[in-house]
C-alpha cells in the first residue's frame, strides 16, 4: 500500500489499527531514507571476516523482514537506486548477493507500506515502486475519524483466510472483465490487472469462500483500479433499433405442475463478459473522487516543475555531493578514501597474503592486515548541477517598449523565485548593431532591477549575432558544470546580417545557419513568439534550433514567468 498522509495522530492510529490485525510474531522493519547497499541487501561482515580469517556474509534488512512488513517513511524522497533494488526484490522474492567473490541468496517476501508525506510542490514516490503496490490510499486530513469505527475482520479471520487463499478459484470471464476495466479507465500497467485479481481472491478468502463472486471483483476494482484511473470510460454504444417482428403465437399452457427438481438440474446461464465488465466499470466509477479529472489536469500541467527546487543535470564526481558508492583507484588530491570499503575489499585475501608473507619473510613479524594497491576504494558522489536560464530578448522595432516590459517583469518574477528553485538568470538583448549581455548570470534581485532599468530599445534585428552570443554564453556556462537553458523572446524576423548590413534575405539565411549550429550543441532551448500573431519566421527558426515553440502574443509578466518555468523543465 502507498499511504498518502502527513505524519500525525491520524496516520499513527491507522498504522496501529493495521498492526492489531497482523500476526503478533510478524517482523516489522522501517527503511531509513539513506541506507547503504550492504545494510539493505547484505554484504561482507568485516569484523567476523577478520576474526575468522574467511569471508562471512551478513544478512541485510530485506532478508530480515522476510514474512513481515516493511514500512518506508518519506517515500517521496526515496533514492531511485534504492527504489530499483526494492522493485527487483519484490519481483524475484529473494535477495541475491554477488560481490567480491561471494555469492549468497536469501528468500524474502514481505508486505510494503509507503508513507507518502509530500506537499503539493513535491514529486510523488518512485512510479515503479508504486506500480507494484496494490492499494493507493489517501487519508483526508480534514477528518478526525478513528479507524476502529470501520468494520473489519479480526486477526483470527485473517489467519483463516490465509489458509483458504491458495485454493480460491476465479472464473475466466472475470479475468476478461478485469482487463477490460483497466483499459476503460486508462490504466496502462498490466500489474493493475494482476493486483485486482489477487485482491478479489483475497476478498473471497476473507469471506470463507472458495470461489470468487461478482461482489469480490467489484470490491477489488474499487480498491485497485479506482485510484489509478487516468480517464473516464467511454459511454456505452446504444444498440441499433431492430425491426419489429410479428408476434409469435404463445405455446399452449401446460396444466402439469412444474417439478422444482427440474429447475435445480437445469444448466446455469454462463457469465456474460460484457455485463461483468459493465458492472465493474460502474462499481469503480462509484469509488472515484469527484475532482479526479481536475486533479489529473493540474498534475499534467504542473509536470515536474512542481518541485520545490528544479535541479539541473545530474553529475558524477569524486569530490562533493551525495555519496552513491565507491570505485577502485588510488586517491588523488581532493578525493576521499573510503576506509571501510577498502578494508572490506582486502579482508577476504588476508589468509592468502599472510601465508605468502610467512613464506617470503625470513625474519620479522607478519602484519595482521595487509592493504595492497588494488584494495583502495574511492568514494563517488552525485550532485545536481545549477540551472541557468538565459533570456535572449529582441529589443528592436516600434513595439520594443512593450516587449522589454514583459521581459523585465518575467525576469524579476523568476529571480524572486530563485531562492526556492536554485536557478540563476542571465539576459541578452539585441537591437540594431548592438548585441550584448545586459545581465550576467546572477541571483541578485537588486542587481537585476538596476540593470533592467532604462534598457534601451529600437532598431533592426541582428538575429544571427544574437544566436551566436547566446550559444557562446551557454557553452561557457556548461563548461563550468552548470546546466544552461535558452529562452528566445522574438518574432524571428531577422533583417540585419552579422556585419550589420540591412539585407533581409542574407540575414534570414545566417539566422537559420546559426540556429542549426545551436541545435547541434544540444542546449535546451525555448522559442517564445512575441509577435501580435504566431509568425512563420519564429516557427521556422524554432524548428531549425530544435526548440520548443511557445506563441505568447499577449503575455503579461506573470503569464510569461509561469510559461517559462513550466516549459524549460521539459526542454
Description:
Helix 10 packs across helix 12 (273-287) and helix 19 (463-479) runs parallel beside helix 20 (504-521). The protein has helices at 9-19, 37-41, 46-52, 61-64, 80-92, 127-131, 155-164, 172-184, 191-206, 214-225, 260-265, 273-287, 292-302, 339-346, 350-360, 400-416, 418-421, 445-452, 463-479, 504-521, 536-544, 557-568, and strands at residues 2-4, 28-30, 42-44, 57-59, 69-72, 94-99, 102-107, 111-116, 136-138, 314-317, 322-328, 377-384, 387-394, 423-431, 434-442, 483-490, 524-529, 548-551. It contains 22 helices and 18 strands. It folds into 4 domains: 2-35 and 63-142, P-loop containing nucleotide triphosphate hydrolases (Rossmann fold), CATH 3.40.50.300; 155-234 and 271-302, Helicase, Ruva Protein, domain 3, CATH 1.10.8.80; 315-383, no CATH class; 385-568, von Willebrand factor, type A domain (Rossmann fold, 3-Layer(aba) Sandwich). Helix 21 links the parallel strand 17 (524-529) and strand 18. The longest helix has 18 residues, at 504-521. The strands form 5 sheets. The protein has a 6-stranded mixed sheet with strand order 15-14-13-16-17-18, sandwiched between helices. Strands 2-5-8-1-9 form a 5-stranded parallel sheet. The protein is 41% helix and 18% strand. The chain is an alpha/beta fold and 571 residues long. The chain is flat and about 85 Å long. It starts with a strand and ends with a helix.
Amino acid at each position: 500500500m502507498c499511504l498518502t498522509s502527513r505524519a500525525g495522530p491520524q496516520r499513527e492510529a491507522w498504522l496501529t489499527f493495521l498492526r492489531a490485525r497482523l500476526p503478533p510474531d510478524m517482523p516489522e522493519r522501517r527503511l531509513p531514507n539513506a541506507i547503504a547497499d550492504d545494510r539493505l541487501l547484505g554484504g561482507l561482515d568485516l569484523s567476523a571476516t577478520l576474526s575468522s580469517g574467511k569471508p562471512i556474509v551478513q544478512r541485510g534488512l530485506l532478508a530480515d523482514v522476510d514474512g513481515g512488513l516493511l514500512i518506508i517513511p518519506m517515500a517521496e524522497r526515496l533514492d531511485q537506486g534504492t527504489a530499483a533494488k526494492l522493485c527487483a526484490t519484490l519481483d524475484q522474492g529473494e535477495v541475491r548477493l554477488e560481490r567480491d567473490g561471494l555469492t549468497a541468496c536469501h528468500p524474502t517476501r514481505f508486505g510494503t507500506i509507503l508513507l507518502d508525506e509530500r506537499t503539493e510542490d513535491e514529486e510523488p514516490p518512485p512510479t515503479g515502486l508504486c506500480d507494484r503496490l496494490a492499494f493507493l490510499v489517501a487519508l483526508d486530513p480534514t477528518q478526525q475519524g478513528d479507524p476502529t469505527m470501520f468494520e473489519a475482520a479480526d486477526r483470527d479471520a485473517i489467519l483463516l483466510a490465509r489458509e483458504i487463499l491458495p485454493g480460491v478459484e476465479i472464473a475466466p470471464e472475470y479475468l476478461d472483465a478485469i482487463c477490460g476495466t483497466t483499459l476503460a479507465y486508462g490504466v496502462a500497467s498490466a500489474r493493475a490487472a494482476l493486483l485486482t485479481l489477487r485482491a478479489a481472491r483475497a476478498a473471497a478468502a476473507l469471506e470463507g469462500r472458495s470461489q470468487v463472486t461478482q461482489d469480490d471483483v467489484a470490491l477489488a476494482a474499487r480498491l485497485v483500479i479506482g485510484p489509478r484511473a487516468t480517464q473516464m470510460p467511454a459511454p456505452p454504444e446504444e444498440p441499433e433499433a431492430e425491426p419489429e417482428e410479428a408476434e409469435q403465437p404463445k405455446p399452449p399452457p401446460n396444466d402439469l405442475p412444474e417439478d422444482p427438481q427440474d429447475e435445480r438440474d437445469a444448466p446455469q446461464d454462463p457469465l456474460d463478459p460484457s455485463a461483468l465488465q459493465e458492472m465493474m466499470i460502474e462499481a469503480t466509477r462509484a469509488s472515484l473522487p469527484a475532482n479526479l479529472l481536475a486533479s489529473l489536469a493540474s498534475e499534467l500541467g504542473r509536470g515536474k516543475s512542481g518541485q520545490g527546487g528544479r535541479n539541473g543535470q545530474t553529475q558524477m564526481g569524486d569530490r562533493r555531493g551525495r555519496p552513491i558508492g565507491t570505485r577502485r583507484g588510488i586517491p588523488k588530491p581532493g578525493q576521499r578514501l573510503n576506509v571501510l570499503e577498502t578494508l572490506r575489499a582486502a579482508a577476504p585475501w588476508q589468509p592468502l597474503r599472510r601465508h605468502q608473507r610467512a613464506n617470503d619473510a625470513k625474519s620479522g613479524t607478519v602484519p595482521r592486515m595487509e592493504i595492497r594497491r588494488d584494495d583502495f576504494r574511492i568514494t563517488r558522489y552525485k550532485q545536481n548541477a545549477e540551472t541557468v536560464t538565459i533570456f535572449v530578448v529582441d529589443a528592436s522595432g516600434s513595439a520594443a517598449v512593450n516587449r522589454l516590459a514583459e521581459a523585465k517583469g518575467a525576469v524579476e518574477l523568476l529571480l524572486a523565485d530563485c531562492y526556492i528553485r536554485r536557478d540563476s538568470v542571465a539576459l541578452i538583448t539585441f537591437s540594431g548593431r548592438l548585441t550584448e549581455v545586459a545581465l550576467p548570470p546572477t541571483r541578485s534581485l537588486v542587481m537585476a532591477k538596476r540593470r533592467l532599468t532604462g534598457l534601451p530599445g529600437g532598431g533592426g534585428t541582428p538575429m544571427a549575432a544574437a544566436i551566436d552570443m547566446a550559444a557562446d554564453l551557454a557553452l561557457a556556462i556548461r563548461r563550468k558544470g552548470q546546466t544552461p537553458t535558452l529562452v528566445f523572446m522574438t518574432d524571428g524576423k531577422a533583417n540585419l546580417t552579422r556585419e550589420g548590413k540591412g539585407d533581409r534575405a542574407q540575414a534570414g539565411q545566417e539566422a537559420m545557419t546559426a540556429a542549426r549550429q545551436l541545435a547541434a550543441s544540444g542546449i535546451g532551448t525555448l522559442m517564445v513568439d512575441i509577435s501580435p500573431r504566431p509568425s512563420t519566421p519564429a516557427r521556422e527558426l524554432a524548428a531549425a534550433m530544435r526548440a520548443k515553440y511557445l506563441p505568447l502574443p499577449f503575455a503579461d509578466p506573470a503569464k510569461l514567468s509561469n510559461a517559462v518555468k513550466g516549459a524549460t523543465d521539459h526542454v
